[in-house]
Each structure stands twice: as C-alpha cells, then as structure tokens.
Amino acid sequence: MGTAWNRRNALLAWVALGLAIGTALALTDRALAARIVWSAAALPVALHVGLAAAQALAGGRVGVDVIALAAILGAAALDEAAAAAVVALMVAGGEALEDWAQGRAKRSLTALAARAPRRAARLAEGTVEEIDAAAIRPGDTLLVRPGETVPADGTLADAEAVLDESALTGEPLPRRLRTGAELRSGAVNAGAAFRMRATASAEASTYAAIVRLAEQAAASRAPLTRLADRFAVVFIAATAVVSGLAWVFSGDPVRALAVLVVATPCPLILAAPIALVAGVGRAAARGIVVKGAGVIERLARIRVVLFDKTGTLTPGRPRLAAIETVPGLRREAALRLAAALAQGSTHPVSAALVAAARERGLAVPVPEAAAETAGGGLSGRVDGQAVLLGSEGFLRDRGLAPPETLAIAASLAVAGSVAWLAAGRRVVAAFVMADGLRPEVRRTVRRLRALGVERIGLVTGDRAEAAAPVAAVLRLDAVHAGVSPAGKIAAVHEERARGTVAMVGDGVNDAPALAAADVGIAMGAHGTAAAAEAADAVLLVDRVDRAAEAMAIARRSRAIAIQAIVLGMALSGIAMGFAAFGHLPPLIGALVQEAIDVAAILFALTALRPGRDDVAPAPLPDEAGLADRVAEHAGLRRLAERLREGAEAVGDGPESLRALATLEADLRAELLPHQAEEEQALYPAAARRLGGRDPMGPLIRMHAEIEALCRRLASLLHLAEQQDGWNGASAELRRTLFALEALLTLHLAAEEEALAELASEAR
Predict the structure, then answer these.
(1) In Å, what is the CA distance from 491 to each residue of 210, 307, 513, 514, 533?
(2) Nearest-CA neighbor of 266 among 60, 66, 566, 6?
(3) Per-domain boundaries in the chain
(4) Cα(262)–Cα(426) distance, rounded to whole angstroms?
(5) Structural contact between residues 317 and 434, judged by C-beta atoms closer than 8 angstroms
(6) Bigger pLDDT: 8 vs 122
(7) Residue 724 three-state SS
(8) pLDDT at res. 46
(9) E strands within 490-530?
(10) Three-state SS across 54-97?
(11) Does residue 536 have an active-site annotation?
(12) Which of 112, 305, 480, 605 is an S-S bond match for 491, by CB 3.0 to 4.6 Å?
C-alpha cells in the first residue's frame, strides 16, 4: 500500500495547497489567477479519478467515481474552478482517509511481522552465542534478556519468568510463569533474564504461524461492499435524471453541475469497507485474527454454531473425577498404587493420577520393573505386589475382568474414560477421568443466544456417552457424536440447511469441517497449525468466549457499515433536491457534500471502538486475591470428595465419628475462612467490575447456605457423641453430608464461571 499511499497523500497535499493559494489570490482581487490555480489543483485529481473509473469499467464494474469526474470537469468548464477544487479535495481526502482507516485497523496485524525476532542468544558450553533466529533448533538452550522477544517456542528452564504477551493475546498485563511452563514465541521478557529450552525452530513456532496468518488477513471485498457498488449504478442513474431535469426546467447548466457536485459520494461508498476493515482491526486488538473483511460480513450473518468438544469446549486435559473401589480398599490407597505406576508415564491420564495424588498429599512410592504398553497401560510392582493400570482391554488381555459391581459404579460416576487398577490378580479400583468444561463455556453459549444465534450444536469424534452430558449441561440443540472428519463435514452441510454455519475447533480432525463451514474459527493458542490454516478466523487467546466476541464485533461492524451508507445517501439525496431547485450553488454544494462524506466515513470508523456490549470488565487487581482463591479450589474440591466419602461411610458404625469430626474441623479451618476472605476482598472488587445490581449476591447466598449446613453438621456430630453412637442421627447426618457436598461442588463451579472473565492471567 506504500506507493498508493504516497500518491494519494501527494494528491491531497497538492489540492489542499492549490485551494489555499487560490483562495488567498481571490481574497486579494486576483480572480483570474485564483481560477487558474484552482483548476491546476483539480485537474490531476480528475486524471486520477478518470484512470480509476476506466479500470473499474474494464473490470465490468461501474462506480460512483464517474460522478466525481463529471463534477470536476463540468465545474472547470463552467468557470466554477473553486467548486472543482473543493470536489477534488473531497475525493483526495476521502481516499487518504480510507488509507488511514485501513492502516489503523491493520496495525495490530502488521505490527506482528515487524516485531518478529531476528536474533537469538544461544548458550553453548558456558558461553553466549549470538545467532540468527532461523538457526534455532529444538533442544537449544536460549537466553532471553530483559526487553527481548522470545524467539521460538519452548519451556522455561529457570525458576521464574515474567512475560508480556500483548502482541499475541491483546492482554496488557504480564504473566508470571514457573519452571517448566510452556513459552510461546513473540512474547516479550518483562522481567529478569531467563533461560529456556527450544522445542521448535523459529519457523515452526507460534509467532511465525501468526505472522503467516497476518499476511493472509489482507483486505477483501465483502458481499456488502459489492452490494454498495451495485447500488451505485442506481445512484448514478438517479443523479443523471435529477441533474438533467434541473437543466431542462431551469435552462441553466450550472443547476445540473450543482446536482453533480452534491451527488459526489465517492468516499461515502467507502464507508462500508472502512467499517468492515475496522472490525478486522478491532478483532485483532482482542486477540482474534480475522482473514479479511469478507469474513466479518459472513460472521455477522451466522445463525448456526457448531463446536468441537475436546480442546474447544473442554481444555483437553483429563482430571480425576471419581474413584471407585472394591470393599475393603480405601480410595487413597488405590490412588497411591496407581500414581506409583503412573509417575513413569507421560500419558495425560497418568499425569492426572499423579497430580491427584500430590493434591492429596500422598507419599507415592517408586515402582519396580515398571513397563508401559503403548495404547494399553502400565505394569510393575509396588510395595512388593504386582500391579496393572490401564484400559479394560489391557486388563482383559491378561485374563482380568472388572467385577460387575465395580463396573456399574464406574459407569454411573460420570460419562468419562476409565482407568482400571489390578492388584493381586484381581481388579480392585476404577479411576473415572473427566475433561471438565472451560469456565467460560456456559457464558459463551448464553452470549451466542443473545446475539441471535438460533442453533448451537456439538460435533465430536468422542463417544455419545461422553458428548451427551456436555450437551445437556449447556442446553445445546444438536449432538453429532462419534463422527469422523468426513462425518463432521456432513454435519456442517446438514446444519447449513438451517442457516449460515460457523464451526469452532482446534484439532487436525476439525480442519476439514472448519474449511467446509461458512466461517471456520480455530482455537489457535494451543490448537494445531492445520486447524489455523483451514479456518477463517483464529483465536490467539485460549478462551472459547472470544468466538462469541468475534461475532459481536462483526455484527456491530456490519450494522455501522449499513448505517453509514444510509446516512450518507439520505443526506446526499436531500442536498441534491436543494441543488436542483437552485438553493445550493456549486461551491456551497461542494462544501456541503464534503461535510456529508467525511461525516459518513468518520461514523464508519466508530467500528474501531468497542461497543457498549464489547467492553469487558477490567481484570481484578492482585490485592483482591483471585489467583490465591482459584488455587485454593483444588483443596476445597478434595473436601467435597471427603464429604461424599463420609456420607457413604455413615452406616459403618460409631468408629467413623472420629473421621467425621476431623472433616468438620477441616471445614471450619479451610472452607469457612476461605469464604469470609472472599466476601471481604474478592467479591466487592468483582462486583465493582462486573457491574449490574448485586452480581455476587447468588454466590454470597450460597456461602450462607454452606455455613448453615456446616453448623448443622457440627450439631449432628455433637448429638451423635452425646448418644454414644448414631441412633437417630445417622440418616440426617448422611443427608446433611450429601447436601453439603452437592452445594459446595455447585458453588465452586458457579464461582469459577462468574470470576473467569476477571482473571487477568486468562484475558
């Protein structure tokens, strides 16, 4: 755009200078010299417009720039040189304003390529070696100094690093990362120097992929813009008729010229693409790469949204949801055995089991003779006994089958995958894994409904048993489960009969469906390159709610484009009427039309600003303690599990009173202070940022209910101790424990959803 930009700036400067000099000459009574200067200023613009009109005609398109050409030449011929210069200034100024708008809209995208790391510091044998970024190879140890850009994807080798990821995500606040954390190229070191180990070359890293996406995000002609071009033919015809009638009935060609002057909407027709391109820029500022204005147009028309499940609606990282054991084996003991084997494996299920054991503070022994069967499971000896951990098929191949009661309990726990544990030649435990929903998913679905999306569905290769609970929780309209990549394409085609379809996914298996949809949206932060390449828009932030935000931006940009066209055309029509009846001479008409066109374009530029509904609440300050509260939730979930275990053990006899007393003491020591601290610091700060009437009220009421149940539990335990056993208290104890477990679990989920938008590290 550089050459065109320079040419248009030169034309604008030429016309502005000529208009100023001519005006000065006219004010000093040198009218002839003024007209010569004004004409000289206008004619280069006429030549420029004439060439553009000829190119458009050669391409089979008629634009309103022919009206501008006729107005400039007519004004010059009829000795209205000042009007010709004003019209020329309007045309040149409108084109320069268009270039400025496009440049501002694309600033977030084009800046990526400019900031691409060129050099890197590699550590080799105790020395620092300066190398080209292109020479980075996986396994290299790199030094990233303060203010430098991370040159390649990798992992943090030092204890801590502070990174500014605003170029990648739009999030202004830096992130603090710990040893082993994943690093993405393009982030800027906002703290002390740190070491990292590269896991990819610079060309194969995140930043290079984003630059390639940015290069693909060139301006394109959206359907709405083509509609404006077709409407221009009608406008030209109307202008010709009105100007002709004004000449015929008045007998004055100056009347016809005045109509032509006020009907010069060349910059006006640019209002549509300016608004849409501004939408591209607004999306980029929020970490959403949209590949062209045409995508904005299609996004604004979406009526059906289809989501992939794993990695899109869910994080794609399984967690331990339930433990079922045979009678006589405690859940902690089973988890200890499983984690002992799992710590030698990198499988996601193994990692989840080890993490669960650490959360519970279990001492995990080192296994003996541990071995892993790819795609099956693990074997080894723990505490002197043979132990197997893996899928049901893995155990059946070794002559072991889960007891029927254990299989039924596992199937009823949750609809997730199950890892089975065998010890002493029998299956003794089932570990039910679940990939929980992202905290922002429910809010995303609600916002899509509010935006006018009529149908929301799930398209997944996972089992129907795993997909159905997700669809039920989110109140989705359709479920396509157990489908192949070809099946996902078929689902997109099936849903297209109900309206324009958007597909949101992250994996290689989603790429065909992303390409087949009217708009494909890829989770780009941790998704595959294949998905990003196939998609029309890429979310650089690992948050699915940015898909709904992209649609909100698109709808607002399209609405502004239409409003700008209607506003400008209506005002131009009114001005044409005044000119036809002789109330607007050419020079005054040119000034009026200049104001109309600039106003319409400036109105289109409002798409660069966030809309009323697009303004997200500011992240909570560190002193509010959100990060600490979220970290504490893992311990609180363990308390919820202990409540369920305690309820199940109530019938075991009076000896479990001690365990319940310990549990009640832990509730007073951990849960109740946690709630009190939230209400003192976290909730007031969250309420101020979320706005509305008492946004934290429901959560505070849950706190009160939880505290009431805790007091009831303490009273029942005291009663049981006084009665030297359970007696009549056992049934009520069981109900209270189950109720407290259910309410606490619900509260944690609701709180995390409500506060997810305010978590600075996720924005």
Answers:
(1) 29, 11, 8, 11, 21
(2) 66
(3) 2-106+219-277+556-608, 118-207, 288-315+437-540, 319-434, 622-762
(4) 90
(5) no
(6) 122
(7) coil
(8) 81
(9) 501-505, 519-523
(10) HHHHHCCCCCCHHHHHHHHHHHHHCCCHHHHHHHHHHHHHHHHH
(11) no
(12) 480
User: What's the rounded mean pLDDT across residues 586-607?
Assistant: 81
Rounded distance between C-alpha atoms, residue 317 and residue 338, angstroms: 18
What one-letter code names the amino acid at 303? R
Residue keyed to tokens 């995303």: 444
Q: What CATH number labels 288-315+437-540?
A: 3.40.50.1000
CATH number of 319-434: 3.40.1110.10
* Mean predicted confidence (pLDDT) in 392-403: 86
Distance CA 326, CA 333 (A): 12
Query: Per the structure block, which two tokens stand in for 128?
Result: 């620092």
CATH code of the region 118-207: 2.70.150.10
End-to-end, the C-alpha distance of the chain in Å comes to 33
Q: How far apart are CA 123 and CA 197, in angstroms?
A: 10
Q: CB neighbours of 569 closer than 8 A, spacing ≥ 6?
A: 235, 265, 268
pLDDT exceeds cutoff 70 at 759: no
DSSP assignments along 97-159, one per residue: HHHHHHHHHTHHHHHHHHT---EEEEEETTEEEEEEGGG--TT-EEEE-TTPBP-S-EEE-SS
**Which tokens is 156 given?**
């943090």
Asked if residue 88 lies in contact with residue 265, where contact means CB atoms within 8 angstroms, the answer is: no
653 — alpha (psi -120 to 50), left (phi > 0) or beta? left
Alpha-carbon separation of residue 749 from 467, 667, 744, 762 (angstroms)? 19, 18, 9, 17
Cβ pair 533, 513 in contact under 8 A: no
Beta strands (DSSP E) in 293-345 are 304-307, 319-325
Say which residue the tokens 């005054």 belong to: 588
Which one of the listed residues 65, 164, 308, 536 is annotated catalytic? 308
Residue 596 · residue 268 · CB < 8 Å:
yes
Angle between helices 441-450 and 464-474 (to 10 degrees): 60
DSSP annotation of 314 reads B
How many whole angstroms from its chain centre is CA 118?
28
Instruction: Report pLDDT digits (tens) over 600-630.
Output: 888 888 887 777 666 666 667 766 667 677 7
**Dihedrals phi, psi of 132, to nearest 5 degrees:** -70, 145
Specify whether the backbone of 608 is left (phi greater than 0), alpha (psi in -120 to 50) or beta. Answer: alpha
622-762 in CATH: which number? 1.20.120.520
- Enumerate residues 6+ apart whose C-beta is below 8 A from 108: 170, 281, 284, 285
